[in-house]
Design brief:
The complex is a heterodimer. Chain A is built from five helices and 17 strands. By secondary structure, chain A is mainly beta. In chain A, strand 3 and strand 4 form a beta hairpin. Chain B folds into two domains: 153 residues, Alpha-Beta Plaits (2-Layer Sandwich); 139 residues, 2-Layer Sandwich (Alpha-Beta Plaits). In chain B, the strands form four sheets. In chain B, strands 1, 2, 3, 4, 5, 6, 12, 13, 16, 17 and 18 form an eleven-stranded mixed sheet that branches. The chains are: A mainly beta, B alpha+beta.
Chain lengths: 266, 301
């Protein structure tokens, strides 16, 4: 599978939906066939070549040069391969991705990694709201894979998360892990108020005790072998846990019968 | 073949296919890890009476374990996969879960999956916590001491059981000293266990018995007190015979352990009262794996 480079011809005048423009879907297509792929642009559909210069790349990757916050659904539905975006992307990046790697050098809009079930998303900038969450009308958010965000996330990240790992090196906005079902979210920075409401299971790791709803119960500080295991087995968590062997364990949302946990690692 | 005055008899050990797995048990201290390892592999000398064969394989440093604590690896072998799937969770639940400070991890990644916490997680009565990251899942079971951490399952290997060699010595003390030296040397070989007490068998058996219903009975050909009354395999100067039984994850591992063990015995040599090395077999008709002593000792390490 040879690679493809997409270089924007000009600034986009409307939002572009890149659903389906993934390395696995482009495999086996000739350059001309790729150029003639139809993509939604504003209220109409146009050929990919009208928006981008399309070139072959030596590697089996899809490289999107420059990037743009109007590029929506980058990597959506990807099952394999690698997408590299040299700048920002719009909303729904990596939606329902089940494999492969999506690297974004800039910021991402809302719903990055929403309903991710496998693979890996690496975001160098900040994310909008609902990172790793359920998309509108869906019951379950991210269920597998890794969403690594070097910056901060907006509201309602990890909402209804069902599995997988979200690592946020910056801060998390309000409503983190609302209705979380399972999985792990790790926030290096601060966590805004009203996190964890309706949390059923799952783990949120952070460094300071966040402002939690009334349904959370402090069980105290415990020596947890699981921390040592996670720190060694998962490199992304090792960066946060370090040599810590104990954590304060706060369980909730008990008002709804939940057994989720916030682990505060000193 | 004679090595340092010890005769290597032209014989072979006859071994059988077994299905096995490896668990890594960690604890706060090396002592508690070893207690858990030895307890979990207790009463597991022979499948004939115990349902499985098991022993501690290696002592692991904190650098070698998943949670960075001291540990041991143990191996458990059974005659078939169904039996293995039965005995492993039983031993895990009774001997590792109950042992202070321990955690238990998969020691084999390949092969059919043997359930670990997948089975015993229900002990936590709904309070168990699952964590799956990547394709590995482990469980945290709240217990009175804190939490028991355990991988969901472990892999399995199609290994070899019943590799062996016999140490023929002038006295019981000399046979025991040579056995201890062999066991100590063989501990360095990865992928094998010596399931009998201290790694040594004093009651090697033959197949069958004069009594109905007994599968095995004393190997009278090697009993020194019967010499002269039976078809004995012992020359007059042999006063005691001890056996080392080896189970391993592969033919090569068992062969290497055999070589290392016999070499250690031969280092003691005839000066230490060792007369000969022999091996137990059933005429070559029962087990598909034959460890020919002279071939093994003739091979370069």
């Amino acid at each position: 599978m040879s690679g493809i480079v997409l270089r924007p011809r000009a600034t986009f005048e409307a939002r572009v939906d890149l659903t389906g423009i993934t390395p696995d879907n482009l495999a086996g297509l000739s350059l001309a066939e790729v150029e003639h792929l139809s993509v939604p642009h504003g209220g109409r559909a146009i050929a990919l070549a009208e928006l981008f210069f399309v070139e072959r790349a030596p590697d089996s990757v899809l490289l999107i040069e420059i990037g743009d916050e109007r590029l929506d659904h980058v990597g959506a539905g990807m099952t394999a391969g690698e997408i590299i975006v040299e700048g920002p992307v719009g909303a729904w990046a990596g939606l329902a991705m089940s494999g492969g790697v999506l690297r974004i050098a800039g910021d991402a809009g809302d719903f990055v990694g929403a309903e991710l079930s496998g693979g890996r998303i690496e975001l160098a900038g900040n994310a909008g709201s609902h990172a790793g969450a359920a998309s509108s009308g869906s019951r379950r958010g991210m269920s597998g894979g890794l969403l690594r965000i070097a910056g901060s996330v907006g509201q309602r990240a990890a909402e209804r998360q069902r599995g997988g790992l979200i690592v946020v090196f910056g801060n998390a906005g309000e409503g983190l892990a609302t209705d979380m079902i399972a999985g792990t979210t790790c926030v290096h920075g601060t966590v805004a108020p009203r996190m964890g409401r309706g949390m059923k299971r799952g783990t949120v790791l952070c460094h300071k005790v966040p402002e939690l709803p009334a349904g959370f119960v402090d069980t105290g500080t415990h020596d947890l072998i699981a921390l040592r295991l996670l720190a060694r087995r998962v490199a992304e968590l090792g960066e946060m846990i370090g040599a810590a062997t104990s954590a304060r364990r706060i369980v909730g949302d008990t008002l709804l019968g939940g057994q989720g946990e916030v682990l505060v690692v000193a | 073949m004679i090595l340092n005055g010890v005769e290597i008899r032209d014989s072979f050990a006859e071994a059988f296919p077994m299905v096995g797995t490896r668990l890594i048990i960690t604890a706060d201290t090396p002592e508690w890890a070893m207690i858990a390892g030895k307890t979990t592999t207790g009463f597991a000398t022979s499948v004939i009476g115990c349902g499985c064969e098991a022993a501690v394989e290696q002592v692991l440093s904190p650098d070698e374990t998943p949670d960075g604590r001291p540990g041991v690896s143990i191996m458990i072998f059974a005659m078939d996969f169904k039996s293995l799937k039965t005995v492993v969770p039983l031993r895990l639940g009774q001997c590792v879960l109950t042992c202070p400070t321990t955690a238990c991890y998969a020691g084999v990644e390949t092969g059919k999956r043997v359930p670990l916490a997948k089975t015993i997680r229900y002990f936590a009565d709904g309070y168990q916590i699952s964590k799956k990251i990547g394709n590995k899942r482990f469980w945290r079971l709240p217990v009175m001491e804190g939490e028991f951490v355990c991988d969901e399952d472990t892999g399995s290997v199609e290994g070899v059981g019943g590799g062996n060699f016999l140490i023929l010595a002038r006295t019981r003390g000399q046979a025991l000293a040579a056995s201890e030296a062999a066991v100590k040397a063989m501990a360095a070989v990865r992928g094998v266990i010596l399931p009998f007490p201290g790694g040594v068998v004093r009651s090697g058996s033959k197949v069958g018995s004069k009594y109905k219903g007994l599968f095995a009975s004393t190997n009278h050909h090697y009993c020194p007190t019967l010499r002269g009354t039976v078809d004995s395999a012992l020359p007059p100067e042999v006063g005691s015979v001890l056996e080392i039984v080896i189970d391993g994850e592969s033919f090569e591992a068992v062969a290497e352990a055999t070589r290392v063990g016999i070499s250690a015995v031969c280092d003691i040599g005839s000066a230490g009262g060792i007369v000969a090395i022999d091996a137990g077999n059933y005429g070559g008709n029962l087990g598909p794996f034959h460890f020919k002593l002279r071939d093994i000792m003739g091979a370069k390490p």
